[in-house]
Write a structure and sequence with these properties.
199 residues, 5 helices, 28% helix, binds coenzyme A
Length: 199
Amino acid sequence: MSETRSYPRRVKTEAGEIEFRLMSRTDEAAVLAFAKALPTHDLLFLPRNISQPKVLSAWISEIEAGDITSLLALKGGAVVGCGTLVKDSRSWSPHVGEIRMVVSLDVRGMGVGRALSQETFALALGSGLEKLSVQMTVDQRAAIALFESLGFKAEALLRDHVRDVDGRKHDIVVLGHNVAQVRAQMEAYGLPGAVTPSG
Ligand SMILES: CC(C)(COP(=O)(O)OP(=O)(O)OC[C@H]1O[C@@H](n2cnc3c(N)ncnc32)[C@H](O)[C@@H]1OP(=O)(O)O)[C@@H](O)C(=O)NCCC(=O)NCCS
């Protein structure tokens, strides 16, 4: 999947220069520290709690197996964000990818999330997927605004779908994006390089 984008890449944001690169086993400790510093409420959109070492280790095994591609955003060597593209080639939805994204509290509102979402979206466009989905608790206004601005639209509301550590239940919204249509439009405009950048 990564053959269509090359890393590391650097982007300038209000939080300073951010480096994007692919996550691997050697990042385990740094990503665990990043996840543990996040409010657990901000992890409710994920199927498992990534601040637990076992979950993180399983996630890295899935990266190694090729169904997950995770991009880290680093500032001065520290992990400040993570954008993930999840595919399941053995399911009935091999054409669908899910984007998962989280940014550390201290750099929020400074453009890191936007840059990371664009980078993850470009990765998804270049990987041949036809549809993308993203999900979050309904109170994540920034996440909803961000993905809507990329063309995602609400497709489902799952009431009381996740339960936090205090036992409170929260609704999840699922947004979808027909990327096959975007790819076809870009090709019609003669812009194939926009979906398979050479790096
Ligand atoms: C979603 C998230 C990654 C955004 O990261 P970020 O670095 O703060 O994002 P940015 O600074 O690039 O802001 C993104 C956009 O959201 C908008 N935004 C920020 N805070 C907002 C808020 N409270 N309400 C509405 N919009 C908001 C910004 O205006 C910005 O749009 P712009 O680029 O047009 O100005 C971050 O809030 C997060 O980690 N949330 C918790 C995890 C989560 O729920 N992830 C969603 C699942 S995929």
